[in-house]
Amino acid sequence: MTTVVLDIEGTTSSTASVHVGLYAYARPRLGPYLEAHRDDPAVRAVLAEIGAAGTEEAVEVLHAWMDGDVKATPLKTLQGRIWAEGFAAGELTSHFFPDVPPALRAWHAAGHRLAVFSSGSVASQRPWFAHSPYGDLSALVGGWFDTVNAGPKREPGSYERIARALGEPGPPLFLSDVPAELDAAAAAGWRTTGVRRPGEPSAAAPFGPHPVVTTFEEIDL
Questions:
Q1: DSSP 176
Q2: What is the distance between the alpha carbons of residues 206 and 10, in angstroms, rounded to a whole number?
Q3: What pLDDT, on a 0 to 100 scale, did the predictor assign at position 193?
């Protein structure tokens, strides 16, 4: 049995589907969401972490982070909550490359374990997999990890924490389109495979010693 840990953007799904589709959905809803959930302890914690005096100032900071693609935890937390509501309301549908769902289903059926490690919050990962054009894929996934419960994706310690949480005796296999993330996973003793998707930001990236595939159909577990 192999444990396969999946990146999302550029690996299972197009980067544009997140950075264009989801970001565009969340952007105008950040302010109204903050106003509507002022008494929510999690929202108060987000505002405190941002250090904003009010909603308008907080939204300015959040929009700046979005424009700079900053992987800030307060932003990821709010986006995840807004996206979860959008998926539940039927206003959002996720995107997966067509080779991914059949591979995930086949791997799961063969007894392999699947997990996700994405910079997007766990709150956004679950509905992303649950509301796909290929049906509910979330039931195939047995572990959800983000930069809050695991750590930064380019640090070996994050992968060490995930391995301990999964409790697997053998090294997991990490699939990602970002060489620096693969380097960190390899430094933690993981197996790695780079995913080179045509048209994606890392399509021309040098993957160094990592094996590289262009579709999940090429992966032999």
A1: E
A2: 15
A3: 98
Report helix angle 73-88 to 41-50, nearest 10: 140
Q: Three-class SS of residue 171?
A: coil
Are the beta carbons of 125 and 118 closer than 8 angstroms? Answer: yes
**Token reading at 66:** 């979005």
pTM: 0.87
pLDDT, position 64: 92
Q: Kindly give, in sequence order, each residue whose CB lies less than 8 Å from that of residue 170, ignoring residues fewer than 6 positions away.
A: 2, 3
The Cα 133–Cα 92 span in angstroms is 11
Residues of the chain with pLDDT under 70: none
Token pair of 65 as six digits: 């982070």
Tokens of 115: 């997990």
What is the CA angle 39-41-44, rounded to 5?
75
Determine which helix (DSSP H) or strand (DSSP E) holds 5, and give its type and residue range: strand 3-6
DSSP 3-state assignment of 115? Answer: strand
Tokens of 88: 């539940």
CA-based nearest residue to 22, from 99, 65, 80: 80
